[in-house]
Amino acid sequence: MPALVNFWSIVLTLDTEEMTMGRLAGKVALITGGAGGCGLAASELFAREGAKVAILDLPTSDGANVAERIEQAGGSACFIATDVSDATQVQRGVQEAERRFGAVTVLMNHAGTIEVGPFLDTCEDDWDRLMAVNVKSMFLVTRAVLPGMIAAGGGSVICTSSISGVVGTPMEVLYCTTKGACHMFSRAIAVEFRQQNIRSNAICPGFIGTAHGRRELELLREHGTVISDDMLQNMQGRLCDPIEVARTALFLASDDASFVNGAHLFVDNGYTAA
Ligand SMILES: NC(=O)c1ccc[n+]([C@@H]2O[C@H](COP(=O)([O-])OP(=O)(O)OC[C@H]3O[C@@H](n4cnc5c(N)ncnc54)[C@H](O)[C@@H]3O)[C@@H](O)[C@H]2O)c1
Predict the structure, then answer these.
(1) 161 Cα to the center of ligand 1, angstroms
(2) Closest ligand 1 atom to the C-alpha of 84?
(3) Which residue's CA is the nearest one to ligand 1's atom 31?
(4) pLDDT of 161-220, one tens digit each?
(5) What's CA 93's distance to the chain center, in Å?
(6) Do residues 78 and 51 touch, judged by C-beta distance below 8 A?
(7) Which of 180, 137, 182, 175 is closest to 30 using CA atoms?
(8) Are 246 and 45 in contact (CB under 8 A)?
(9) Is the separation of the CB atoms in 67 and 56 below 8 Å?
(10) How much is the pTM?
(11) Where in the sequence is the domain holding 199, given as residue range(s)?
(12) What total of structural domains would you count in the chain?
C-alpha cells in the first residue's frame, strides 16, 4: 500500500508541475508593441505561460504599467522604452533585454501602424514613416536578436502581418505594401535559419477590436471606403478579439508548433477564404 501511495503522489506531483510550468516555461520573449492591443494581450499571456517577457514599445506607451502588473501577478516582465524603427534604440533595447533575461528565444515583431488615404495624395515622408515602423523595425529587431537566439540553440520568430498582405484595400496602398513585405520577411527568415533551429511565421489577422483596428475602420469610412458593420459581419463575422491573436502567437511560440515554419497563419474567421 505505501508503494501505491508513493506512485500516485509522484504522478500528482508531475501533473501539478506540468500544469504550473506553462507552455513557454524557460523561454525569453521579446515583444515589440507589447504595451498595446494584441501586443499587450501577448505580453500578459506569454508571461502567464511562464516566459520572461521584455516589452519594447514607445516611451509614451503604457509599457511600464503593463510590466509592473505582470510582475505583481507573479510573472517576469520588463519594459524597455524603444522606438523600434530607430537602429540605435533597437540595439540598446535588445542588449538591455538580454542583460535582464538572457538570450531571446521568442521574438514577436508586432509593433506597427496605419496610413489611410488616396494613393495620389501620399508623399515620400508617409512612405518612409510607414516602411520604417512596419518593416524596417522587423529587420532591425530580428537582426539584433538572432545572434543570441542562434547561440541559445534556436527559437521562434513571429511577425504580425495582416490580411492586407494578400488583400488590396482602396486607400491603403502603403499599408498593404508594408504587410506584403512582412509576409516575405518572415518566410525568407524561415528558410535561411531553418538549420539553426529557428522557426519564423507570420500571423495575418483580419480587423481587430484594438485602437489600430478601430482607427483603420474610421479612416477608411472617412475616405469613402465603406466597410459597414454589415459588410464586416459578412466578411469575418465580428471583430477579432486581441486575445485570439495572442493565442495564435502562443501556439507559434511554443514547442507545439515545432514543425510549423514559414507559414502565414490567417486569423480572420474566413475573410480571405471567401
Ligand atoms: N488592429 C487591426 O485590425 C490589425 C489587423 C491586422 C494586422 N494588424 C497589425 O497588428 C499590429 C498592431 O496592431 P494592434 O491592433 O495590436 O495595434 P495597437 O495600435 O493597439 O498597438 C500597437 C502597439 O505598437 C506600438 N508601436 C507603434 N509604433 C511603434 C514604434 N515605432 N516602436 C515601438 N512600438 C510602437 C504602440 O505604442 C502600441 O502599443 C500592427 O503590425 C498591425 O499592422 C492590426
Answers:
(1) 10
(2) 32
(3) 83
(4) 999 999 999 999 999 999 999 999 999 999 999 999 999 999 999 999 998 899 999 999
(5) 17
(6) no
(7) 137
(8) yes
(9) no
(10) 0.93
(11) 24-207+242-266
(12) 1
